[in-house]
Amino acid sequence: MAIVELSFSALPVHVRTARLIVTAVARRSGVEEALLDEVRLAVGEACSRAVEAHRRNCPDEPVHLELKGENGRFEVTVTDAVPGEDISGPGRREGSDASSGDLTSVGTPEDLAFALANGTVDLGLAVIEGLADDVEISTSPKGVQIRMSWPAEEAS
Amino acid sequence: MDLKVNDYTTDDGLTVITVEGEIDVYTAPKLREKLIDLVNKGKFHLLVDMEKVEFLDSTGLGVLVGGLKRVRAHDGSLELVCTQERILKIFRITGLTKVFGIHTSIAEAEEKRKGAK
């Protein structure tokens, strides 16, 4: 089992750095080239969500990532330090079908823009749900944890 | 990588916004400012050319939805030019292909606009 851990200050500029590192580790862990875009985007979404949550609640706390390759899976866990964030609702559905993040049930673009602005819809979670092979979102008194994984060849 | 955002308006009154680079939580505010600025200048028919966009995340989607809401308030339109599968996929999984008109080229968008008049 190979583990890479990464912590970064909750600044938007660092999300790109995190994406680059995760993509490099995913490639090294044997994730198919065709899946790397999905890994990059899904992890970027999880990091963006965590950065925004930290900026609202605890800007001095770093966002934490753990990248793990074992048993033919590449697993990424993004952990924030903001307890009690509500992650239910459209695009925020706990235990939803990971194959669909369709938000058009929200209604017109005006409705959707309003829902995005007031936080009842989270496009980022919708994208993660649509992209990651396996997603688990959990909340604890310490914060929100998003665990995503993809198939990977055993790295040499 | 920085986000490059430029625009020009055709004789037909269509404002084409060319975007180059990565649209994410760090760079999306630049695109948001451009869209707001154009609407404030009375440009209500916008076409965002995304052919040189290398990365788009939900922050970018949110900016585009916000832009669409603004132009619609003035009976305007915001459509996209995009043929890159990895970008189109994000619109598909969120269902936003039903919200935005998506064209394969600027010329195609202009033709459809003329045809609709």
Automatic annotation (TrEMBL), chain A:
It comes from the Bacteria. CDD domains: HATPase_RsbW-like (cd16936). It holds the Pfam family HATPase_c_2. Residues 82-105 are annotated as: Disordered. Transmembrane segments: none annotated. One of its GO terms (molecular function) is protein serine/threonine kinase activity. Keywords: ATP-binding, Kinase, Nucleotide-binding, Serine/threonine-protein kinase, Transferase. The keyword Iron does not apply. Residues 8-150 form the Histidine kinase/HSP90-like ATPase domain. InterPro entries: Anti-sigma-factor_SerPK, HATPase_C_sf, HATPase_dom. The keyword Transferase applies. This is ATP-binding protein.
TrEMBL record, chain B:
Residues 4-113 form the STAS domain. InterPro entries: Anti-sigma_ant (IPR003658), STAS_dom (IPR002645), STAS_dom_sf (IPR036513). One of its GO terms (molecular function) is anti-sigma factor antagonist activity. Pfam families: STAS. Keywords: Phosphoprotein. Belongs to the anti-sigma-factor antagonist family. This is Anti-sigma factor antagonist. It comes from Actinomadura rubteroloni.
